[in-house]
């Protein structure tokens, strides 16, 4: 015996321009029937919370699926899978499409070449799928936007739950973030970590979806923006504080990435912050008392 609930959605062309739209959502458990072989023209994330089964690749090789796991069903790639007889499994799925899928694939959030992904915990992803299911009621005036926004959240939750990534973050990325403001080249950072340049690039691409240079640049520019907005420090001094000895080079980098020079950013975003900028993230549910 098995139980199945699912709903299919048809977002309008204007909703597709949001980047991601949800095409369907489902919650199933028990001895579910075999799926496929079949080929889809959109993406589906199938989150297995409990149970075991198998997934068969187009060349006939079978991979054991043990919960918690994610099955990536990607457009144009045949798939064939089922839970083991007996207890079956518990799954939730969300189908989606949109131009943002290409970017999420480039960043490593969607992995077409890795159809079975072990998860450390399926709780977060299943909670998002449950929210999509609740939002998918036919009388919901926000249906397409609410479910589309939740697909973005689902991709983040699945990335965070991957068993091959540490739940509290990749140690290499943490170390790079800690040392981001030191005037070191990418090669220097690799040496510090006892890695080759290629190894460092692979580690950062796997964990952050970008190159080490872009990862460091993002952290440096984020801090530079904070200093420009909340202090009166000269641009040259800010450049040195975020790891650039050459202020002119820093200004060119800032302008190219941000779209305006540092002086203009300061003019737009400058704020008076009595007592300085707090590093403590405020709790919206417990605002500080004045």
Brief digest:
With 290 residues, the protein is α+β, with helices and mostly antiparallel strands. It is 40% helix and 21% strand.
Query: Uncertain segments of ≥5 residues (pLDDT<50)?
Result: none
Provide the helix percentage. Answer: 40-55%
Distance between the termini: 60 Å
Helix-strand category = alpha+beta
Major sheet attributes: 9 strands, antiparallel
The strand count comes to 9
Give the helices and strands as they follow along the chain: EHEEEEEEEHEHHHHHHHHH
The proportion of residues in beta strands is: 15-25%
What overall form do the CA principal axes indicate? globular
Mean pLDDT: 90
**Total of helices:** 11
Using only C-alpha atoms, the radius of gyration works out to: 23 Å
Search tags:
alpha+beta; 40% helix
Walk me through this protein's architecture.
- With 290 residues, the chain is α+β, with helices and mostly antiparallel strands.
- 40% of the residues lie in helices and 21% in strands.
- The protein has helices spanning 13-16, 100-106, 123-135, 143-161, 171-178, 186-192, 197-208, 212-230, 235-241, 247-258, 262-269, and strands spanning 2-8, 21-30, 35-38, 43-56, 62-66, 69-73, 79-83, 89-97, 116-118.
- The radius of gyration is 23 Å and the shape is globular.
- The protein starts with a strand and ends in a 21-residue tail after the last helix.
- The model has no long low-confidence stretch (mean pLDDT 90).
